[in-house]
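User: For documentation purposes, I need each entry recorded in a consistent format: the amino acid sequence on its own, followed directly by the corresponding structure tokens. There are two entries in this batch. Please keep commentary to a minimum and don't merge the entries.

Assistant: Recorded as requested. Entry 1:
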Amino acid sequence: DERPLAEALASLTLEDPSLHVSADAETGQTLVSGMGELHLDVVRDRLLNDMRVNASFGAMRVAYRETPGQVARAAFEYVRETAGRMAHAEVELEVAPLDPEDEEGCDVKGERDAADGNVVEVADAVVDSAAANGGTLQGEVLREVRAAAAGGVHGALARGVLLGFPVAHARVRILRLGHISDELSSPAAFRACAAQALQQALRASSPQLLEPLARAAVRCPAGALGAVLADLNGARRGRVLALDEDAADAEVKVVLAEVPLSAMVGYASVLRSLSAGQASFAMQVVGFGAMAQHEQQKVLSRAHVV
């Protein structure tokens, strides 16, 4: 019975807005997303010990994002007969990377996804249809087709082609909508067609993984500073942003660094070892950044993709 788990998670999400619960459509698993390892450890402890929920937990996974690596175009033609009616659609589109630093000033003519920074443009799409050229195609049909194609793109952006993570920082321009007619233009056909075209374009765009980045503040005794810095710059793949003394104790150093979240799994025990248990840290996820190619290959290899 999954009801006790669902009720417990609903209660926790009301208390903690940073906790997100979703379901994997393919596996049926319940996915719980949080702000890091310690956050999810607390959630698991509360579910098992405080709320007495009988549940098993899988290994913790990092929630990556996917993004196009270069500009790519694709066209897909959809022909299918459903319930005795033929549906015909064709969509050509272009996908391109969108630099997060340029997104606010980007001149777009489409819908912007605030969560993942994607932009979908359909207003200037060429309508390839004999009916449209002859002036007999109803305006309502065109509006429905454009909306359906944009909806298909938005839906497909929720699942990338590398590992199935959401696509972020992508600019999608729908260039052409073909085979539109009053009789054969099904919104469902254009929605499915646009989704397939986007997947083809993403595969051709040399897609890349984006990894979540965290801002970590580490407090450690001066004697352990060298080991802490070496670990942050090395095994953690971090970038030290600032180094200060603690306001109350000059013998305590405070290191501010930006680190990939995946490299911080298990960091609490590592830090205890480096500082003889005298150091502490806090961190907050601040966004996503491009992953080095060799690190991406490791992730894909572990997922048996390459």
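Entry 2:
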Amino acid sequence: MARVRFSALTNPTVIVTASVYAVLLPLAALAGIYGLFLAGIILLSLWRYSYQVLRHVARGWNHFPPPDVESMNPFGGQMAVVLHYVFFAALTTFIVTTPFIDTPLCVVALAAVALVFPGSAAVMGMTNSLGAALNPASVSQVARELGANYMKLVAVCVLLVTLGFMAARLWQVSWLLGLLGGMFDVWTMLALFLAIGAALRAHRFELDLLEGPDDAEQRNERERQAQWQRALDRAYASVRSGLPAQAYRTIKELIASEADSLEVYQWTFNGMLAWDDPKHAAMLGERFAARLWEAGRKFDALELAQRCRRLSPSFVPPAAFTAELAKYARELGRHRLADDLDELAASARRRAS
């Protein structure tokens, strides 16, 4: 199951933006009749931005811009997301305030809204289609793809809404607490959409989401491995041309460029296993096994040595290292392997002499 990372909820841009919205809304309330229009365009901007952050996080953006002036345009685009938010907000308000629904039924209705909203908002944010967002088939598909993570997402959303509702009531205590509570209230609203985006991001392959241009980490990793592959291809071409020494020099330079990391050793070893003659991988295995041993991964070093021994009889590590491997194998009770390594160490000593 994919792991959902909710670290996006602490995005600094969103925190600052929430603080600004929380300050602007009370100021609009002080402007009298004109403040109603001001509050309206501020809320329009907030609702539009909520779905924008959902898309940003779902596409892997780590840094995204604050809302622009166009988001306050009452005649601007993205009215579908505004209608989507208003629909669920009005529905929730109706369920809570109507006297025609008794308490048990009210709880069931609120639970139904809580179950549907994350999936519906996910569809709305990624398709900008109100029809698709209110289509039960689309919502259920998102829920199926997310699996158990969907229920976690629902729980997080309910928690955020509850905390936001409690924070909004701090105005009754003092204006300072009310201002801080308002900031937290707006943040919980944006965090709700961030959480939905994070869940979509964790399941981006199942949902076939496009990668965002800000997803630098994955792009850098792909580019790095592409560079490794080019170096490995050059080394293989040298081997095919009868220049093994040049091939080994290329491999050494590749590994040195990554500070002899175990990752590049493993990747290169796996790549060399596909070459025509496995002895080349076995020769790299001598250095790889020693590197594993130095890193404290003795068992992995022993397993690699045994594997390389099967790959090629030319696998002969330094005698001292082979003796250490033999001693460790004997400690593990693998006496046959230990005897084989002792014999290999003795052979290496005879060659050295």
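Summary note for entry 2:
The chain has two domains: 6-207, 216-288.
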